[in-house]
Structure formats: C-alpha cells, structure tokens
Amino acid sequence: MTSPISPVAAPARGLSVVVALAAVYLIWGSTYLGIRFALEGGYPPLLMAGGRFLLAGSMMYLVLRRRGESAPTRGQWKNLALMGLLMMVLGNGMVSIAEQWVSSGLAAVAVASTPLWMGLFSLARGQRPSGLEWVGIGIGFVGVLWLNAGSTLSASPAGLVALLIAPIAWAFGSIWSKGRDLPTPFMSAAGQMITGGVMMLVAGFATGESFAALPTLKGTLAVAYLIPFGSIIGFTAYVWLLHHVRPTLAGSYAYINPAIAVMLGAWLAAEHFTSHDLGAMAVILLGVIAITLGKGRAPKAAAEATS
User: Fold this and answer.
1) % of residues, the chain, pLDDT over 90
2) Which residues of the chain have pLDDT under 70?
3) What is the per-residue DSSP string for the chain?
4) Which of these, 1, 56, 4, 21, lies nearest to 226 by C-alpha position?
5) Could you tell me how far CA 62 lies from the centroid of its own chain?
6) Do 187 and 64 contact (CB within 8 A), yes or no?
7) Nearest to 28 by CA among 54, 1, 48, 60
8) pLDDT tens digits for 72-109?
9) Where exactly are the structural domains of the chain?
C-alpha cells in the first residue's frame, strides 16, 4: 500500500522500469510474509510496525535533509500526521494486527480491495467514475463479500474486522490527501512514516503490548528486511515509477502483490488456501484490473473530447 503522489513527470523506458516494477511487485508482495515471520518471532504487531516505520522514516528524513530538501512546515506536519494515522496506523497497522490470526496471503487479498474503496471515495468528492470503473467496483465488491462470507477469513472475527478497516482507511487517506498542502513526495513519505510510527508505538504501549521474551533471530531478520526493503526501497521504486511511467502501470502492483503474497505464503510458510479463498481473490483482482483499465482510458477519452 502507498501514498498518492503527483502525476508522471517524464517518460522512462528500459531496464530501469523493469527493475522498479520488479521491486514494487516482489518486495511489496513479500512484506505480508515478512510481517507474519516478525509476529511469529515474538514481535508485538503495533510495536513492530511502529518501530519499523519510525526507523525507516527517520532514515529517509535525514538523507533528504542532507540532500537539501526543505523540512515540512507546521501545517504540512499536521496533514502528514493525519495521513500517518489513516494510512500507517489504520492501514498498515491493522494488517499487522490481523496477521496474528490470518495468513499473509489472505491479508494481501483483502487489502487488494483498496482501489474499490478509492473509487467510492472519489465519487463522494464529485469525481465520477467511468463506466468500466463502475463495472470494476461492482465486480470487486462481489469478491469482497465472497471473501468475507464463508472463507477462512470469516473464522477469525478480529482479523476480519482489522482487514476491513485497513483498506478503507488507506483509501480514505489517499483520496483526502489530494490537493492538500504537502512537501515533496519523498519527504511526504518520510513524514507519514515518522508520524505514523510514533502513533503506533504509543498505541502499542497503551494497549499493553510488550515483549514476552527475546525475539527470535528469524523474527529479527524479518524486521530487518521490512525496514529497508518494504518501507524504503519499495516505496522509492513506486514513487520513481509514478514520475516516469503511466499511473496505470505504476498502480498495477494492486493486483500483482496478492498473487505474489499467496505464492510466497504457500511456498515458505506452508499456508493453505481453500477454493473459496482463491475464487474470491480472482474476483477481487478482476475488479481491480477493470478499475485500473478504466482509469487509464479516462484521460485518453478526455483528451480526444477536447481535441
């Protein structure tokens, strides 16, 4: 999951695009399994996620400041804090909480519904979806209902609630942020991770999270992977893509990540999925693909209408 960034600034082709796409597809698809391994290794969900994002955001912030980036203003920090609450705490934080009971692959499938909620929130702001986007939203929500009614997800009520909150909060934060006073894209990412990380740490301690024992080496290595790869490299690759390729291509992670997460979960963690789970995933991803294609055709149609 990611923050909204400004539109494409310059085209790019070749190996750099392939490498950036591979980073977004593989790294972000693997973070769900990384979270599971961290939790199994003795890390509490909110303390793990909060520490991960605070460290990653702080490192990004220091590097950007050394490169001459301006620090966010007080008003920008307020906006970043709200985005951190919605997208980091209620988005990524809820995923970490859910994976205490839900498999990593199933968590990724549930989060794949984010574009569906973004379509509805865009409608509430007066941005009318195209016909194909409406079809995608309808198909996607059929998949969401299917996933939540009868799959293995329904056997974990706490995980179900957390995975309903996560994509809704992320989508609302993404749409709310459009047009707000924010710093540069990379500084915005750093600010969101810093503020969200602090809030998750506070929430973790407030809810009684603690380390019952010393975390295992496997869990610590998972966190060590999530900090630079999931939070910094993956996000940086996504921001670069948004500035150099079509948004539809950059956003294709939404229907690639769940497949990657399911395959990695089955391969490395022996996760099992029923035909019900896989069928719901297929329907949700079909809806997301339709929405992505609809968004890609909308600018072209608008350009033809004004030519």
Assistant:
1) 38
2) 1-13, 129, 148, 150-155, 242-243, 246-251, 295-307
3) ---------S---SHHHHHHHHIIIIIHHHHHHHHHHHHHTT--HHHHHHHHHHHHHHHHHHHHHHTTPPPPPHHHHHHHHHHIIIIIIIIIIHHHHHTTTS-HHHHHHHHTTHHHHHHHHHHHTT-PPPHHHHHHHHHHHHHHHHHHTTSGGGG-HHHHHHHHHHHHHHHHHHHHHTTS----HHHHHHHHHHHHHHHHHHHHHHTT---SSPPPHHHHHHHHHIIIIIIIIHHHHHHHHHHHS-HHHHTTHHHHHHHHHHHHHHHHS-----HHHHHHHHHHHHHHHHHHHHHHHHHHHHHHHH-
4) 56
5) 23
6) yes
7) 1
8) 999 999 999 999 999 999 999 999 999 999 888 888 88
9) 15-296
**Sign of the alpha-carbon dihedral angle for 171, 249, 240, 180:** negative
Q: Which two tokens stand for residue 21?
A: 């796409």
Tokens standing for residue 233: 């490299």
Which amino acid, residue 211?
F
